[in-house]
Amino acid sequence: MLATMSTPIATPYPHLLAPLDLGFCTLPNRVLMGSMHTGLEDHARDFGKLAEYFAARARGGVGLMVTGGFSPNIRGWLKPFASRLSSRFQVGPHRRITEAVHAAGGRICLQILHAGRYGYHPLSVAPSAIKSPITPFTPRALSSGGVERTLRDFARCAKLAQDAGYDGVEIMGSEGYLINEFLAERSNQRTDRWGGSVENRMRLPVEIVRRTREAVGREFIIIYRLSMLDLVERAQAWDEIVALAQQVEAAGATLVNTGIGWHEARIPTIVTSVPRAGFSWVTRRMKEQVGIPLITTNRINLPEVAEYVLAHGDADMISMARPLLADPDWVAKARDGRSALINPCIACNQACLDHVFENKRASCLMNPRACHETELVDAPVTRKKRFAVVGAGPAGLACATTLAQRGYAVTLYEQSNEIGGQFNLAKRIPGKEEYAEPMRYWGNLLTEHNVDVQLGTRADAAKMKAQGFDAVIVATGVTPRDPHIPGSNHPMVLGYHDAIAGSKPIGKRVAIIGAGGIGFDVAEFLTQDAPSPSTDIARWTREWGVDTTFEQRGGLGKPNTETSPREVWLLQRTAGRPGKRLNKTTGWVHRAALKAKGVKMLGGVTYERIDDAGLHVTIDGKPQTLAADNVIICAGQESNRSLADELQTAGVTVHVIGGADVAAELDAKRAIKQATELAATL
Ligand code: NAP
Ligand code: SF4
Q1: Can you give the pLDDT at residue 666?
Q2: What average pLDDT does the structure give for the chain?
Q3: SS3 for 205?
Q4: What backbone torsions phi and psi does residue 345 show, to the nearest 5 degrees?
Q5: Ligand nearest to the CA of 343
Q6: By the 8 A CB rule, do 22 and 221 touch?
Q7: Which amino acids bring their CB within 6 angstroms of ligand 1?
Q8: Is the pLDDT of residue 2 over 60?
Q9: Would the CB of 365 count as within 6 Å of ligand 2?
């Protein structure tokens, strides 16, 4: 049985829940909500929404939070008119945030972020006029007067944050932004006192911390986010990073947070295929070198993982951003013995970082309320209604659990013997092991809220009508599209479901028809035997070429990809290289992983026929035969709407959600959002 709030429990997370004494204040636990830009920072008119977003996490017990980045001046903008705190007139709106957080019993720091050459605007500045590989604008090199002004702007921004009621600031010194650019030779080719020698290159961050401390006095938190692993060429050496940490401590920092990888690095650092806690070893290396507490980060999503990292002495605190988007009550649930009910971050980036990079407001695939706390509100139940939900994929599960949490009686029908729908395929893909967690979460929620779950039950329109439900929500999902290629009934042809479920043996040479998200997933499945390196930090770092010995600057070694057990062709009809439509912040990882495995990714393909010789295609007008042992169809899907149509004909009130509603470009983000929004209004 789960313990309630008032039940005293021997916590399984003693390190995670231990207070942390900072000298002038004590944090209640070791959880830092790391900085994450949500898009709400960019307009003061949205600060009411931002205030509720943070207040919800403060009520959920987070020890300390950090806002998204605010630039100390215009030149440091992330994009034109982006978040900035540089004048007294901007202080007032911030008080809405700090007052809401303090009223909820929390603490919050403002992150000061100067974008440097990552600024997506023509006014950007940097140590030297060297364009970054990921932005179109060449920055102007700061003059020495400009450096002085920047220092003043950082200190003034911190003072304004203090005046606005923040408990501290985080100085963003990592991820390849301005401060990091000063530290590395690749972006700093100055010959004045701000460049050249190691001492000169680290002068800017140390001065920023020193002047910030001078401006805010002793009893104000200063977190310095230190790039401990740049993962780019001509970056910092380990002894330089240690020296900087020590100088930052001496200059007055309260805490040092860990930064991993510049944004232009081509090694993944946070996507779902990165092993859990895959970088806490970096913070551990720094542990003996400084006296102030260290915060570690990246791919720590559940209390067990956080506790393990802290108990092993890798760090004093854990920073999490996305897991707290997924569940504002993460800490409270861990504290109160309800961690089985934590809504997991699956590190997909689909609604958080992908949105931010598309200039949309961030949210969370698993929790569409994130950053919409004032808008997506569960209306109170006025009359106890009875609902049937048909289909226990992500859409059906999100709908059933939301309705049940609101107090309605819900019956959930699922024709297979398990909940999860297509997530049960996703969790079998190497690097997507995290996709098992939502089923743990939804399964426990169904039990907690007494949903009547009917597995192995095919819903029948006549029987459902007879039950007299107030409404039936149809979430019957999709069926794979038949591409109608001559020979597609040949025994060598498999659907993606059979391929991933492992219900049929697959040969050594495989052609995949369709290069969408599922085609890529199938290619990863075929080229990597289980267990995948994503479950083993040492294998994963070898595979991607992370130099854990730090013999190379930036920790950048040589990738050492494990050989694929199969030869694979990944095909699409559209001209150009497959994978262009994959998600913004994760697509490059999938493309790079398959390239390293030798997968032949081909566009502009016409499928002619399938026979004993393999798959016959025409590419650029030339006929070819791909001598495949198997052809796997991943050609998209079509809605499964027959039950919805039958129910409607029978006069039952029906709502259709998820893939059953619209199959084109279906993804779990849209399905869960639609389901949650519907359930909030019924
Ligand atoms: P999809 O992304 O729409 O891709 C379908 C693929 O099939 C395309 O490559 C398309 O390319 C091809 N195709 C379409 N009609 C065809 C036909 N008649 N004959 C032959 N080929 C055809 O669909 P999906 O791969 O099934 O994925 C479904 C959804 O799940 C997508 O929204 C996807 O984003 C999501 N998903 C996401 C991930 C992820 O990692 N984020 C993973 C899995 C799935 P051509 O038309 O060029 O041939
Ligand atoms: Fe995590 Fe995905 Fe939600 Fe982002 S959208 S917080 S990565 S589950």
Answers
A1: 67
A2: 96
A3: helix
A4: -85, 125
A5: 2
A6: yes
A7: 481, 483, 513-519, 521, 572-574, 583, 634-637, 665-667
A8: no
A9: yes
Other beta carbons within 10 Å of 377: 10
Instruction: Return the minimum-mean-pLDDT range out of 244-253, 442-451, 508-517, 659-668.
Output: 659-668
The minimum-distance atom of ligand 1 relative to the CA of 664 is 3
Give the dihedral sign, CA 230/236/242/246: negative
Q: Which residues, in sequence order, are CB contacts of 22 under 8 Å at separation 6+?
A: 221, 254, 255, 293
- Determine phi and psi for 316, rounding to 5 degrees: -100, -20
Nearest ligand (C-alpha, residue 615):
1
In whole angstroms, what is the distance from residue 222 CA to residue 117 CA? 24
Domains with residue ranges and CATH for the chain: 20-357 (3.20.20.70), 386-480+638-681 (3.40.50.720), 493-528+564-635 (3.50.50.60)
pLDDT in tens, 22-78: 999 999 999 999 999 999 999 999 999 999 999 999 999 999 999 999 999 999 999
Q: How far apart are CA 550 and CA 169, in angstroms?
A: 30
Pairing of strands 471-474, 317-320: unpaired
Distance CA(392)–CA(476), nearest Å, equals: 8
Q: Which residues pair with 611 in a beta bridge?
A: 614
Q: How far is CA 554 from the centre of its chain?
A: 23
- pLDDT of 102 above 80: yes
Percent of the chain with pLDDT over 90: 95
**Could you give the residue numbers annotated as active site?**
177
Q: Where are the alpha helices (DSSP H) in 475-570?
A: 496-501, 517-527, 537-544
With a CB cutoff of 8 Å and minimum separation 6, the contacts of 520 are 570, 578, 579, 582, 590, 594
CA distance 669 to 456: 26
Please tell me the residue having the least CA distance from ligand 1 atom 16: 635
How many residues belong to the chain?
682
- Residue to substitute in 343, 365, 437, 672 for testing ligand 2 pocket (most ligand atoms within 8 angstroms of CB): 365
Query: Whose alpha carbon is nearest atom 2 of ligand 2?
Result: 348
Q: What is the pLDDT of residues 74-94, one digit of tens each?
A: 999 999 999 999 999 999 999
Amino acid letter, 67: T
Whether the CB-CB separation of 212 and 169 falls below 8 Å is answered with yes
Amino acid at 338: R
Nearest atom (ligand 2) to Cα of 347? 7
> What's the pLDDT tens digit per position in 410-439?
999 999 999 999 999 999 999 999 999 999
Where helices occur in 271-373 by DSSP H, the ranges are 280-286, 303-311, 322-326, 330-335, 353-357
